[in-house]
Design a protein that fits this description.
The structure holds two protein chains of two kinds. By secondary structure, chain A is α/β, with parallel strands linked by helices. Helix content of chain A is 28%, strand content 20%. In chain A, strands 1, 2, 3, 4, 5, 16, 17, 18 and 19 form a nine-stranded mixed β-sheet that branches. Chain A has a five-stranded parallel β-sheet with strand order 9-10-13-14-15. Chain B is 36% helix and 13% strand. Chain B has a five-stranded parallel β-sheet with strand order 7-6-5-8-9. Chain B has a four-stranded parallel β-sheet with strand order 2-1-3-4, sandwiched between helices. In chain B, α2 packs across α11. Classes of the chains: A alpha/beta, B alpha/beta. At the A-B interface, α6 of A face α4 of B.
Chain lengths: 459, 346
């Protein structure tokens, strides 16, 4: 890496005095960030700031807790041509995230303490966001035997979220055991709900559009049947279940029913499922190919309402970068997945805030507070209050910008939002009090003191 | 019209023009010298990612009768991931200055992808893509039906539509590109389309098609169709539990001798039997039905050359007479999310 950030020594003790920020879109106040924490809020902040504090005029900007993504594909180790921890976490910082969960479908699969510690170390070395590895549920995502979940939980990566995302844990016995087992360390199973037999060769949502296009359908029931089974399993064994990328109106109904019964289930929706529909597949442009597939306008509406009413708990990006040759081909041959880290905030603002379904406090709930709680990240998703960790972003909700994948920090150019004009721009990201993004551009990564790192390694 | 990718995006005006030009081309086929100089010096590439000798030689004959240079490019064994990508193949053809690419591909949408990409400038003709469309097959079917309809009506073929005609399409609609292209084209031309087949082989979403659907073939025949088009059944479908056995399929949805006799009993003297070929005799169609005077199967093959001549001629002759609001339904429309429901060009 030609980056010289490790040679330089970013000043981690910079103090930031943020003036006139709209706190969660409600009250306007000053914020003082010092030593990784929020040192003051309100009228006393300016008085408490040291003379060397950097002042940021946040007039017109909304201050929010740093976003937390439960669902990111960073591709490293194994597909560094698609993304690395470094490039993916840069994209995350620019997108307003202070923590991301790296999915386990790397190569080798993150199914041992060794691999999750590698990803964790790469995240620490990059320093743009808190990179939280997700551990695989089964060895090699093979769906046949449990990976060493306890070893991953106790590793330096302290894994709490386990998922075979990309494939479904379809064996009901294995799913039951996984749900039970992770209770020992307060873990959660994040399920990719896709009945495999019902989706063999599936290319897109099964419905009116697939019938015309002659593409093999991915029926909603393949998602809904697994979710129905899993919420019943979670209830039976008293475990925590998280449902990844819910995409259908029927899934929403099942989750709503399960929550009413007291099942400890949380659910996630991606930004793209909040905006795009399978009508786009008529172009046969594989940039719209994703798993689960884009659904109908009715599904999109149901997902928005579910996110607003709390049936769906969080937004997860399912950021899935691919090298161009995996999309520059026929639909059937193309890889599934879309980038999302750098557009998530804008898409959620467009679909949820500007439609009046969520206010900024609700936005913070679904993008930060609840995902941090599900991932058991104690320093993330906190109130913007004195003494709390300074994971804060400043957002200009009035800006409108046109999505240009070529200008993104991610290596992936597969954004389905290219050319769209979207609202909202992240002006600054503070990760543990350190500015990773200033003036809408990458600043410097946060460096953990080498001595502390070394100590951690030898402890 | 820059490309011919699907019949769904074809307006009635364009479709009729294609058929009328095909009538003129057909006259050429009846002359001693079966050749026109129209496309002299132009290069047509038959790019076949799937074996189909019938379609390939039909296009080859069509291009040669128009004096075009023909290159046959069979991409063997390049079913999917292995081998050269579609993009690299297309750029190779572009470098060879192909004027038209006739593409047969196992992946639905591959021709649309080729047409929408900047990989190649040539006109793209879809010669069958996956389970999506096979527009020239539908055009030759429509051409055959129109001649039959005009003959019954005692009118000239040219200019005639299929208004008032009732066409029954039978079999594996789910996997049939021929069925899809025919549904859109025949309804655009004014025909009423009936579909019959086992529910497992009718796509989810078919309710939004402009057709009446029957699960019972005899009930469909009772609607007194003017033409019955039998689709090819791939016996391996049985392995995916689409139907229990080929014998059961044949009994319920095959055009057998009993149903052939039924047409006579019902007095449907002018009802024709069609099949896109290749046939499974004894499975979806009996030998007696295939060989009966009602059968248009060989006429369909003959008409295929005329229709493909018309398509090549209209795409390449510089006749850019554009009567459609748009000629390319394939471009991604990122600014128009979501694309409005329903068909966009009728």
């Amino acid at each position: 890496m030609t980056d010289t950030k490790h040679a330089t020594s970013p000043d981690t003790s910079t103090e930031y005095l943020i003036r006139n920020a709209s706190i969660l879109g409600r009250t306007t106040a000053d914020l003082l960030l010092r030593d990784g924490r929020i040192a003051a809020v309100g009228d006393t902040a300016a008085a408490q700031a040291s003379p060397s504090a950097v002042t940021i005029d946040a007039t017109g900007l909304v201050a929010l807790p740093g976003m937390v993504d439960l669902h990111t594909h960073l591709r490293e180790p194994g597909r560094e041509d698609a993304e690395t921890v470094e490039t993916g976490s840069r994209a995350a910082a620019l997108g307003g995230f202070t923590a991301i969960h790296a999915m386990a479908n790397s190569s080798p699969v993150a199914d041992t303490a060794g691999v999750v510690e590698q990803v964790h170390s790469l995240g620490l070395a990059s320093g743009w966001v808190d990179v939280r590895p997700v551990g695989a549920v089964t060895v090699g995502l093979g769906g046949e035997r449990l990976a060493e979940l306890g070893a991953m939980a106790e590793s330096r990566a302290t894994v709490r979220v386990f998922s075979d995302d990309g494939v479904c844990v379809h064996d009901p016995v294995l799913m039951r055991r996984a749900l039970e087992y992770v209770k020992a360390f307060d873990g959660v199973i994040a399920q990719h709900a896709q009945e495999p037999r019902l989706t063999e060769g599936a290319q897109m949502n099964e419905g009116d559009v697939s019938a015309v296009l002659g593409l093999t359908g991915w029926p909603a029931v393949a998602e809904e049947s697994i979710i129905a089974r899993d919420v019943l399993l979670a209830q039976h064994v008293g475990s925590r279940l998280h449902v990844c990328h819910v995409s259908t109106a029927g899934s929403v109904e099942i989750i709503r029913w399960a929550k009413a019964r007291g099942v400890d289930v949380t659910a996630e929706v991606t930004p793209h499922h909040l905006l795009l529909t399978d009508e786009l597949v008529r172009s046969y442009d594989p940039v719209y190919k994703v798993n689960p597939p884009l659904r109908t306008a009715g599904d999109v509406q149901a997902l928005r309402e579910a996110l607003a009413d709390g049936t769906i708990d969080v937004v997860g990006t399912d950021h899935a970068p691919h090298p161009s040759e995996h999309k520059d081909c026929e639909w059937a041959q193309a890889a599934m997945g879309m980038t999302g880290l750098e557009t998530a905030l804008s898409v959620v603002q467009h679909t949820m805030v500007e439609t009046g379904l969520l206010d900024w406090e609700g936005f913070a709930r679904v993008t930060s507070v609840t995902p941090a709680r599900i991932g058991r990240l104690r320093d993330q998703g906190r109130e913007l209050a004195v003494g709390e960790p300074a994971n804060v972003i400043l957002v200009d909700p009035a800006v409108r910008w046109t999505v240009d994948p070529a200008a993104m920090a991610t290596k992936g150019r597969n954004s389905p939002f290219r050319g769209l004009e979207l609202p909202g721009s992240v002006r600054a990201t503070f990760y543990a009090g350190h500015a990773t993004v200033l003036d809408g551009a990458l600043a410097t990564p946060r460096q953990v003191a080498p001595a502390r790192e070394a100590a951690a390694w030898t402890r | 019209m820059k490309h011919l990718l699907s019949t769904r995006d074809l307006s009635a005006t364009s479709a009729l023009r294609l058929l009328d030009v095909a009538e003129e081309m057909s006259a050429v086929g009846e002359r001693e010298i079966k050749k026109l100089p129209a496309l002299r010096g132009r290069t047509v590439v038959n790019l076949f990612f799937e074996d189909s000798t019938r379609t390939r030689i039909s296009f080859e004959a069509a291009a040669k009768r128009l004096s075009a240079d023909v290159i046959n490019f069979a991409v063997k064994g390049s079913s999917v991931s292995k081998g050269e990508s579609l993009k690299d193949t297309a750029q190779t053809l572009e470098a060879m200055s192909a004027d038209a690419v006739v593409i047969r591909h196992p992946a639905s949408g591959a021709p649309a992808r080729l047409a929408a990409s900047d990989w190649i400038d040539a006109a793209v003709i879809n010669a069958g893509d996956g389970t999506h469309e096979h527009p020239t097959q539908a055009l030759l079917d429509a051409f055959t039906l129109r001649r039959h309809w005009a003959r019954i009506g005692g009118t000239p073929s040219a200019g005639t539509t299929l208004a008032g005609m009732k066409v029954l399409i039978v079999g594996d609609v789910l996997h049939s590109r021929v069925a899809r292209s025919n549904v859109w084209l025949l309804t655009t031309l004014g025909a009423e389309v009936l579909l019959a087949g086992p529910p497992t082989l009718l796509p989810v979403g078919i309710a939004s098609w402009p057709c009446t659907v029957f699960y019972d073939l005899d009930e469909a025949i009772a609607q007194r169709p003017d033409a019955v088009m039998m689709l090819r059944l791939q016996a391996e479908r049985m392995n995916a539990a689409f139907f229990p056995s080929t014998r059961e399929y044949s009994r319920r949805w095959g055009f057998d001798d009993g149903r052939l006799a039924l047409l006579d009993i019902m007095g449907l003297d002018d009802t024709v039997i069609m099949h896109p070929g290749p046939m499974n005799r004894g499975l979806e169609i009996s030998a007696a039905a295939a060989d009966s005077p009602r059968s248009t199967i060989l006429a369909q093959v003959r008409n295929g050359v005329s229709v493909r001549m018309a398509a090549l001629y209209l795409l390449l002759s510089g006749d850019q007479h554009d009567d459609e609001p748009r000629d390319d339904g394939t471009r991604a429309l990122p600014h128009d999310l979501p694309i409005p429901e329903g068909r966009t060009t009728r």
